[in-house]
């Protein structure tokens, strides 16, 4: 696809770049489980270490009304990214396509003592049944989204005040690029980046502000070395019979996890409270 005049649009470029991360059929077929699957535990709220000082948390809290503020979290996982917004948020709405993530989100909201609602399904398909909120957040999801325009338009339409998005500056799977070369003789891509998201937002006529910060504390799950082999095996689509070789590789070449994140914020355009919502 291309815009009139032959140049591909930023949205088309994003879509092609995301598609380039697809894994060849022979790797997927040999994989004991999906290389893309996420562990719920990895995205659970760590009650002892809720990080209220990240740029993304601060940028969202700047906008949430001091009284009765609501936050919609799209691709909420276990609520790790919304927890630092309570307070001032007094209601959180979680959307996720994985039911087990929503169970974890509800448990976290109960521990935080905040009102919550959940919507089970894929964004933007579930947009019509998702309530409007003061602030919409969507953290660590966009590299999963090939068709960015309806996704972003949906986020904007459900935010009264602002949308705040956080993503690593490179695709999170890029940490495994070297290992894919070694174990599967496979070259992996190095784009898109957060700048490709900015290009799509500008193409939509939105006016995003953004900044890059060091990635803060990784989850308790990630910090446990026992989980590294499990995650590596899954991401690389390897069977347990390769564990010794894989452990040796990981010791020699620790995966270069992306250590910077971009926070991107732009105005919402949902109707203010009291007005009809289409
Ligand atoms: C990497 S996790 C991030 C979770 C959470 N936002 C955080 O920052 O900890 C991505 C989450 O987004 C969900 N997800 C991905 N694409 C989605 C979509 N189109 N609609 C709803 N949920 C989605 C996944 O199920 C997963 O729970």
What global shape is seen?
globular
Radius of gyration: 19 Å
**Count of individual domains:** 1
Fourth-level CATH superfamily? Vaccinia Virus protein VP39
Q: Main β-sheet: number of strands, strand sense, barrel status?
A: 7 strands, mixed
- Helices and strands, in order, run as HHHEEHEEHEHHEHHHE
Distance between the termini: 30 Å
Low-confidence stretches: 274-278
Helicity level: 25-40%
Bound heterogens, unique: S-adenosylmethionine
Strand order of the largest sheet: 3-2-1-4-5-7-6
CATH topology: Rossmann fold
Strand percent estimate:
15-25%
> Mean pLDDT, as a whole number?
93
Which structural class best describes the helix and strand composition?
A: alpha/beta
Tell me which CATH architecture applies here. 3-Layer(aba) Sandwich
Can you give a write-up of this model?
The chain has 278 residues and is α/β, with parallel strands linked by helices. The chain has one domain (18-265): 3-Layer(aba) Sandwich (Rossmann fold). It is built from ten helices and seven strands. It has helices at residues 10-19, 25-30, 55-61, 99-112, 148-157, 177-184, 194-203, 220-223, 226-236, 243-252, and strands at residues 69-74, 89-96, 115-120, 133-139, 159-168, 209-214, 260-267. The chain has a seven-stranded mixed beta sheet. Helix 5 (148-157) links the parallel strand 4 (133-139) and strand 5. The two termini are 30 Å apart. The relative contact order is 0.16. The model is unreliable at 274-278 (pLDDT under 50). Bound molecules: S-adenosylmethionine (SAM). S-adenosylmethionine binds at residues 38, 43, 75-77, 80-81, 95-98, 101, 122-123, 139-141, 144.
């Amino acid at each position: 696809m291309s815009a009139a005049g032959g140049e591909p649009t930023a949205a088309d470029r994003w879509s092609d770049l995301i598609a380039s991360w697809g894994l060849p059929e022979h790797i997927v077929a040999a994989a004991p489980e999906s290389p893309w699957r996420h562990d719920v535990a990895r995205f659970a709220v760590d009650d002892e270490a809720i990080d209220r000082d990240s740029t993304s948390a601060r940028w969202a809290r700047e906008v949430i009304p001091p009284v009765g503020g609501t936050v919609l979290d799209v691709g909420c996982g276990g609520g790790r990214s919304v927890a630092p917004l309570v307070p001032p948020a007094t209601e959180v709405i979680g959307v996720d396509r994985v039911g087990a993530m929503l169970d974890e989100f509800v448990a976290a909201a109960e521990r935080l003592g905040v009102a919550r609602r959940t919507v089970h399904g894929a964004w933007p398909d579930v947009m019509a049944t998702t309530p409007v909120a003061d602030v919409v957040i969507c953290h660590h999801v966009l590299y999963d989204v090939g068709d960015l325009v309806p996704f972003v338009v949906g986020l904007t339409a459900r935010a009264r005040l602002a949308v705040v998005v956080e993503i690593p500056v490179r695709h999170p799977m890029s940490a495994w690029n070297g290992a894919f070369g070694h174990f599967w003789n496979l070259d992996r891509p190095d784009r898109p980046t957060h700048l490709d998201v900015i290009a799509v937002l500008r193409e939509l006529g939105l006016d995003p502000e953004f900044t890059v910060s060091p990635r803060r504390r990784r989850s308790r799950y990630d910090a446990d070395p026992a989980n590294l082999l499990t995650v590596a095996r899954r991401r690389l689509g390897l069977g347990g019979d390769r564990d010794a070789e894989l452990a040796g590789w990981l010791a020699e070449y620790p995966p270069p996890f992306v250590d910077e994140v971009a926070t991107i914020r732009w105005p919402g355009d949902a109707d203010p409270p009291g007005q009809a919502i289409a």
